[in-house]
Structure formats: structure tokens, C-alpha cells
Amino acid sequence: MNRAVPGARSSPGTHGAPLLSVVVPVYNVEQYLAECLNSILAQDYADLEIVVVDDGSTDGSAAVAQGYARRHGRVALVSSVNQGPGPARNLGVKHCRGEYLAFADADDTVPPHAYSLLVSTVTDSGSDFVVGSLQRHIDGELVEPPFLRSPHRRRRIGIRIDDLPAIMRNVFPVNKVFRRSFWDSARLEFPAGMIGEDQVAMTEAYLRAAAFDVVPEPVYHWHNRGAGSSITQRRYQLGDLRDRITTKQLTTDLVCELGSPQVRDYWARHGLGGDLPLYFRHIPGCGDDYWRTLVAGVRQLYADQPPIHESHLLRVQHRLVGWLVTHDRRTQAEAILRWLEQHPGPLPLQTSGGHVVALLPFHDDPNSDIPPELFRLADHELTFDARLFSAQCSEGVLELVGAALIRGAPTDGATPRIEVALCSDAGQRVGLDVEQRPSPDATRWIDRLPQRYDGSEFVARVDVAALTKSGVCREGDRWHVELSVEVADIRREGLFRTKAPGANLPLAAAGDVAVRATFEPSSGLVITVAEERASFS
After folding, report:
1. Cβ(480)–Cβ(526) under 8 Å?
2. Distance of CA 393 to CAs 230, 386, 421, 457, 527, Å?
3. Which end of the chain, N or C, is less surrounded by CB atoms within 10 Å?
4. Long-range residue pairs from 121-125, CB within 8 A, at least 24 positions apart, any chain
5. Measured between alpha carbons, how far is 227 from 314 in angstroms, rounded to an integer?
6. 3-state DSSP call for residue 246?
7. Could you count the other beta carbons within 10 Å of the beta carbon of residue 371?
8. pLDDT, tens digit, 9 for 90 and up, residues 338-386
9. Residue 529: closest CA among 449, 450, 466
10. Same fold yes or no, 2-222 and 382-536
């Protein structure tokens, strides 16, 4: 091992800010490394050092890194024999001098303001680390993964894992900044000799932190460099399967040792099954060793946990295949997976006895010996959603255009029935006239083609002036807009969860009465009435 540190380097705190050390493990990424290092050097947070760890590359990666070390005093190169990304990161940490610690992968990039946001947040809060969201490059666009949207919906300062168990699904080391003192005192490190080592180390960080921060902004750009270019794209290999099972077991052991009952239950139902469908996909035509390893591994993982078919993370087809794996039913699992490959897109569904049933192979075969409930969609697959498209007020009448639907419910031949009501803080409820109309806007919003939600749009009108004159609405009362939708005997209700960018709110209008409509993330659309517009100023 050698460390090349040519040229003068800035000392910690040169610009009055704490030094941030960024560890970049490198293995055969010659064509991407310059873009990564340039993005870190272009940060508007100046007090940083970049510790590049060449993990025994056989291409020109080391030469690229050496060139940057010569030209930039903030770049250092550490060389090692190939051991994998976990040991490379651990080695890099040993050579870091900063008060704060970050990681980046050599084939990704960091947006310009990421480190200034993360460091300022954790410096002001005093927390052990801070975590941001990230975006993936998909078809030329930057897209936030859906599973990160909920935990990163708003800024949270000084929380613990019990306050937000869902953050455990953000197991990436690259969108976080740690206090080096916390990293050392918690004795954090990445396990060696396996893929998925990120999950073990990051889960332990969440569990051991006295406090951490969450910011909603994406602070990392994750590139998909093509088939076979990254470890996560080679899951069909038997060794990768063994590594994944080991990673899941190590993480489960940590959660059981350090987590509260709430955190343990969340992990079992929302985290443990993650990535397993990617390995289920390779069951058709797999070797006997692969099948035996999968059966033994899944049985081991769920031995002391709620069974896999009760997972809140997996969709119905994956819960069914998981159940078949645990029962060593290879022929049936292969049949279902081959059918899924031949029938891409949304599953065919029907309602039966108040349940939505997926019409998968064996669903109506009494000789299959598969419990019928395994073909039913779970509650988490039939969730209410509603979006406000526009709001306008004229002469005391407020007109709302939106969509309300049940994600995952049947759409072919099933017409939703939508109801809208005003509900006051005092408990009053007023039903509104609703006009349903076909429109592609809801389908475009949900973006789950070929499943169509064209029948989910509606127009609701609120005659606020008439309600005020009748004495139902009183000055200063707050009214929430509540919605319900019923599709094929399945009923859900709730508030507007989002508003379209074109929905101009807050809205204030005056006629016989003054009306104000605002959108609040926790309360949806809120309507307030007063006698004069000035009452809202």
C-alpha cells in the first residue's frame, strides 16, 4: 500500500469551516472517474479533501487518480490490492483528516450544493450525521426512487430511528455526512468480502446514533452505467445470492440486538424482503445449488420473523413466490415466474368476497394446495391517493378539479364512485356535488401504463356564499376537503395528498364573502371563510 500526496494541501479549516473528507473507492472505472472527481472538486463547500482508494484496478483508473493528485492539492491517492468496496472505504477512512466524513462511488456524481447543505445542517444541529435523498439517471432524466419520497418529504432535525423507521430503507452511504467522532466511537466499518455491505454499516449507524438529521433535497446523482458494469447488476450469480443472504442476516442481527420492538417489526415487514424479488427472477432454469441456497437462505431469514407472505414491502406475486420458496415448491414457483415474464405490465385482477384477487397461475386450481389468501392484494397494495389539479373561485363558488383513486385496484371495466365533502374542525360535514368526467390526466399523473385511471377525475363545486348565508359556515372556520372512492367493492378515503404544479394556491377571492384556499401537506386542501378579503392579510 502506498499513499501519494503530491503538492501542497489546504489544512483543516482554512476557510473557517470544518474539513470534510470524501472517500472514493475505485476499481476499473477509468472512463467515469474524472467526471466523479470533477463534481466533488466543483462543490461550493471549499474545505474538503478527496481520498481516492485504488482497489487494485487493472485499467487506467490509478493513472487518472494520480493525475488529479498531482494537479489538485485536495486530492490524495491510496493504493491497495483488490479487496472490494467495503475494505476500500475502510482503508480510505483511516487516511481521512476531516471532522466530517462522506463517501462517493467513482462512477457517480455529486451535485454542486450537496456538501454545503449537509455539512451546514449537521453542524447547526449537533447530530451524529445527516442524510439526504438521491436521484437516479433514468432515460436522460434525474428521478428520485419512490421508496425515498416518503421519508424525505420534509426536513427533520435531531431525530432517532424510532421517529422514522422508514429511513432504514435509505441504506446508501453516499448521500450522508457523518461526524468523524461518531463514526469512530460507534466503531462503524463496512463488512469485507460481500456485496450489499452498505446496508449493514448504514443500518448500524441509524441504530447507534443519538440523533441524526434528514433533509428532503437530493444530494447525490446515481448513474446506471449499463448491464454488468456494477455489482448490483450481477445478482444472478450464486455467490451474489449467498452474499445477499449473509447481508440480510447480519442486518437482522443488528436490528434485533439494538432496535426497539417498533423498529424490529418495521424491518421484518418493510426491509427484510428487499432485493429478494431480484433473485426470485432467476429461479426458472437455475441450477440446483442456486435453488437449494435460496430455499435455505429465505427459511433462515424468516425463521424468527413474520412469514414472508405477510411482508408489507413485497407485492402479491413476490409474496406468493416467497411462500413457494419457503415450502420448497420449485415447479410452481417456476411456472408463476415464467408466466410473469410472458405477461408484463399490471396483473389481471378481479374482486371476490371484498378482496382484490390477482389472477396468477394456480389461483383457481383446487389441487395446487396453495392457500387462496396468497393471491389477494394486501391493504398496502390498495392505497388511496388524490391530487388537486386546479382551484378557482368566482362569486362565492369554489370549483375544485382533481382526481381520487385507489392505486392497484382494477381499472378494466370498473368505474370508480367518488364523493367529496367539507369537514370542519368542529365536526360538521357537508357533502358536495361531484361531476365525474373521463380524462387522461389521472393516468398521466399515476404513470402506471397500461393500467388506466381515466375515470378518476372529478369536478366539485362549493357554494361557500350559500353555506355562509345558511349559517353552516361561520367566519374563521377551517374546513378540510375529504374524499372517498369506491372501486369494485373496495373503498378508501382520505385527503388530497398532492397538488399539481399548476394548482395556484393559496387562493383568495372576495365577493359576498372572502374565501381562502390553502394546501397543507398534513391537512390537504383547507378552506377558510371570512366576511372581507382583508381578514386574510
Report:
1. yes
2. 54, 20, 17, 19, 11
3. C
4. 121/157, 121/213, 121/215, 122/177, 122/179, 122/213, 123/18, 125/157, 125/158, 125/211, 125/213
5. 24
6. helix
7. 11
8. 999 999 877 888 888 778 899 999 999 999 999 999 999 998 888 899 9
9. 466
10. no
Quote the CA–CA distance of 264 and 249 in Å, as a whole number: 13
Q: Which three cell numbers stand for residue 512?
A: 359576498
| Distance separating alpha carbons of residues 414 and 46, to the nearest angstrom | 58
Name the amino acid, one letter, at 377: L
Q: Rounded distance, CA 197 to CA 458, Å?
A: 48
Extract the C-alpha cell encoding 201: 454499516
Looking at residue 410, its amino acid is P
Cell numbers linked to 356: 382484490
Q: What are phi and psi of 293, to 5 degrees?
A: -65, -40
Would you identify the CATH topology of the domain 382-536?
A: Immunoglobulin-like (2.60.40)
Domain ranges of the chain: 2-222, 235-380, 382-536
pTM above 0.85, yes or no: no
Q: Match domain 2-222 to its CATH number in 1.20.120.80, 3.90.550.10, 1.25.40.10, 3.30.43.10.
A: 3.90.550.10
The torsion defined by the Cα of 131, 137, 138 and 141, in degrees rounded to 10, comes to: 100
- Per DSSP, the residues of 405-461 read EEETS--TT---EEEEEEEETTS-EEE-EEEE---THHHHHH--TTS--GGGEEEEE
432-457 pLDDT, tens digit per residue, is 999 999 999 888 888 776 678 899 99
